[in-house]
Amino acid sequence: MSSLKPFNKLPGLNTANILLVEFEEQFQQSLADALVEETAVTVNVRLAKSLPLPKENEESRPRIDLVVFIINLTSELSFQSAEASLKYLDPGFFLGKVCFMVTNARNASVPTERLDAVRKLAASLHCPLLFAEDQTPEGLANATERLLTILKVTAGLIPMATALYLSNLTRCTVPPDIDQPTFD
Q1: What is the pTM of this model?
Q2: Cβ neighbours of residue 162 under 8 Å, at least 6 residues apart?
Q3: Could you check whether the bond before residue 52 is cis, i.e. omega within 30 degrees of 0?
């Protein structure tokens, strides 16, 4: 098993490649279907439950422009899988080519500590943290639109914009009071 490298292959013309990593694969397929419907550019979507990716088809695998970790907050395994998969990414991906997407953040049964842990993880890696509503078509459309915007920049399809610049604008920051106990 090898680590995934961002710059070991040449990009395709007017093509963007995205890797969606989700342990439970609930939101992943519907998001992939919505991303492929994009008509302005060719979007290739790869799906994985976790990293590392198998080594046997490494030669035929295209360059990955964006890695998205989809974390379902109602599942502790989802967060643990995403956290364990991070070590299989080359450090070059953390220069604007990784983002986290969180689902079920509005669910009342989600412990606040889990959301705080995801926020800390995204902030420590200087990655964007997106929230998505996976139960409604509007939520899926909004998530798709956000990911397409980031994907076009990371694939180099937007002139005068780089993934690192976008990452600095959209990265997650942790408020200073996140470690403080709550009194509610």
Answers
A1: 0.91
A2: 96, 153
A3: yes
